[in-house]
Amino acid sequence: MDASLLLDHYRMQACSRQWRGFLQAMADEFADALPDAELARLMARMGERFALAHPLAPADDLAVLQAACNGIWSNLDWGSAQFSEQPGEVTIEHLGAPLSALLGAGASWAGGFLEGVYRGWFQAAGMLPGLDVQHLPGTSADVSRYVLARVA
Amino acid sequence: MSADAESHDDVAGLFKRLGRRDDTRQYHDFSATPALPGKQTADAVAQAAPDPVMPPPVPAAAAAVAPAANRPAGASHTASAAGPVQVAPASSLQVLFQRLLEAPLRPSAQSPLARLRTR
What we know:
The complex is a heterodimer of chains A (152) and B (119). Chain A is α+β, with helices and mostly antiparallel strands and 152 residues long. Chain A contains 6 helices and 4 strands. A 4-stranded antiparallel β-sheet of chain A has the order 1-2-4-3. In chain A, helix 3 (36-53) crosses helix 6 (111-124). Chain B has 2 domains: 3-48, no CATH class; 56-66 and 87-119, no CATH class. In chain B, 45% of the residues lie in helices and 0% in strands. Chain B contains 7 helices and no strands. Chain B is flat and about 65 Å long.
């Protein structure tokens, strides 16, 4: 069996069969109605709403914050996150998000959702004005990448 | 019916009200904002329902000093006798945020999404 077909099979299992058709139809309708940039912004707002509804436990360092995030994702079967501090930025890699797995890498705007979630969580953790979380374009349906860095 | 009242009934009016906000980057949850009868303006909405955003972060040093500033005058002697006010060290997360803020601006910082937000 082709390995990519096998991977597609497992990606599909990441999203409940109950919601696949609905989410795919909603995504198609969104994509027809709005440009990608506006869709990404809409998804980011949804993500910020999600972050407000799922507050993290207090964290005083990046590792604790990552663990708190993964506590939420684990409970929801939404994959996992890895934070990595680099010079001048923190990269965030989110592995196995079901939305990305279902919609595929072509729906890059869907990455706006996790951008909004991480923005909300970092803001709650004291992120200073002038910093922001941004989605980095990628080609993988399995890993979404974000960067926390200075934007102004 | 006044112009303001009309503006509450259509999509154009909604965007007009959104456009009056000083900072449209922040998410605003309208679900908790009751419908406003009569002539109440969008400015009144903004005053009545502040954004549910987090307050600006307070530096650890300021947070540690703040209780001393609120101490009753009679307690100042005791405090000075106990020595200088202890300043809590900034957490490593706060230090990280400060370090990121002092880093050079990334060339790709102005993503399409960021540009859209600044319009």
